[in-house]
Design goal:
Layout (H helix, E strand, L loop, with lengths): L7 E3 L4 H10 L3 E2 L6 H11 L2 E4 L4 H4 L2 H6 L1 E4 L7 H9 L19 E4 L10 H6 L3 E4 L5 E3 L2 H14 L3
Parallel strand pairs: 1-2, 1-3, 3-4
Antiparallel strand pairs: 5-6, 6-7
The structure holds zinc ion.
Length: 162
């Protein structure tokens, strides 16, 4: 599935997973304050899949809400197993949409002209890089530096060519 076909909401225990989902380019809501009923209500309203490790949802949530919630229970205790489970279940594309989303606020990033960024990025980066992307919400600027290549390599190792 591509990022237009599926969206997620991760519970507060899965913030690292959410960050890597965003890095893959998938919309994954996550917040320290988002869990339990609040998470379920938001996910149902937005038609998002809930990602959780909590096994006791049924006891805590109103039945009507639970019936409308799409829940995927992650079993691995840590990355990269968690990411692998979600990638396999939802057939996530591990390379096509890399770094198309802001890691901080989950919004898509858009290409931005280099000439507009002179004051916004470190001088060495401005000299070295040609292509930049920016988040419209928080203003954070992204470029394909070494951290990006490192992350892509880790994903390749974790998820293979899937
Ligand atoms: Zn942002």
């Amino acid at each position: 599935m591509n990022p237009n076909e599926v969206r997620f909401a991760a519970d507060a225990m899965l913030l690292s997973l959410a960050k890597w989902m965003r890095l893959l380019g998938y919309d994954c809501l996550a917040d320290e304050a988002l869990f339990g009923r609040g998470l379920a209500e938001r996910a149902v309203a937005d038609r998002r899949w809930i990602l959780t490790r909590n096994r006791r949802w049924a006891g805590d949530l109103p039945k009507a809400l639970l019936e409308r919630a799409d829940i995927f229970r992650v079993t691995a205790e840590e990355l990269p197993g968690q990411l692998r489970e979600v990638a396999e279940r939802f057939s996530l594309d591990a390379s096509a949409f890399l770094f198309t989303r802001c890691l901080v606020c989950n919004e898509p990033v858009a290409p931005v002209a280099k000439r507009d960024l002179r004051a916004a990025v470190p001088p060495a980066v401005w000299e070295r890089e040609e292509r930049f992307w920016q988040c419209a919400r928080c203003g954070r600027v992204y470029w394909q530096g070494s951290h990006v290549r490192d992350s892509a390599r880790r994903l390749e190792a974790w998820l293979g060519g899937s």
